[in-house]
Every structure is written in structure tokens, then in C-alpha cells.
Amino acid sequence: MGDMVGEAASLNALGALHHDRGEHEQALRRCADALGVVERTVERSGLADVLFTLAKVHASRSERDEAIRLYRQACDIYHEQENWPNEAKARLLFTDVLVSVGDTDAAVRELERVIMLRELMGGAGVGEVRELLEGLR
């Protein structure tokens, strides 16, 4: 299983790299490959990472409904694993998509959760998130 987890992580990293370069079709292909591998394991963290990358790609392609679905799944897994840093990062990006579809109430809830998570991790960046939150209220 270790090899499959590593393979999925590598494919996801390639997907993220393609996303960062604006190569969305290639990003989707690599992430689909990663998803196919990680789904054959019990590795939930790797699954969350792939879902998070896919959510970013779909958001970049203005496929907001799919991005929302994927961000929710990734956030749920990060939450169940108490992976606070990745949960906070995913929820912060999720907020942008929620705002873009006009769901300000959900965006406010996500930012409140990000603040709580950042406080649990020592408080770094809480002020910036509070400013974002106040801008939505």
C-alpha cells in the first residue's frame, strides 16, 4: 500500500503543478489518475489532498458547483482527521468560491471555522481572516 500512497501523492503533486501553471486539462487528468490510485487504499489524508487539488482546478475553471462539492469533501476529511493546517487552508479557499456564488452566509461560517482553527494552531494569521470576515458582514 505504501507504493500506492506514494504514487497517488506524486500524481496529485503533478496535478497541482499543472494547476499552478494554468494547465487545467492536464491537472484534471493527473488528479483523476491520483484519485483512481488513492481510492484503492484506505488513505483518507491522500484522498483529501486529491479532492482539494481537484476543487482548486474546478474553481479556476469557474466550475463552481463541482468545486464546492469537492471542497466540502476535502474539508470533511481534514476535519475528521484533525488535520487543522490543511482544513484551514481548504476552508479559506472554499470561502472564495462560496462568495462567488453569492452564498455569503456559508462563507461567513467557513471563515469563523478558519479563525477557530488558526487560534488552535497558535493564532498566526487570525487578524487577516478576521478582516476578511468583517468585509463579508
Automatic annotation (TrEMBL):
One Pfam entry name: TPR_12
Gene3D superfamilies for this protein: Tetratricopeptide repeat domain
Annotated InterPro entries: TPR-like_helical_dom_sf, TPR_rpt
Highest taxon of the lineage: Bacteria
Transmembrane segments: none
Name the UniProt record assigns to this protein: Tetratricopeptide repeat protein
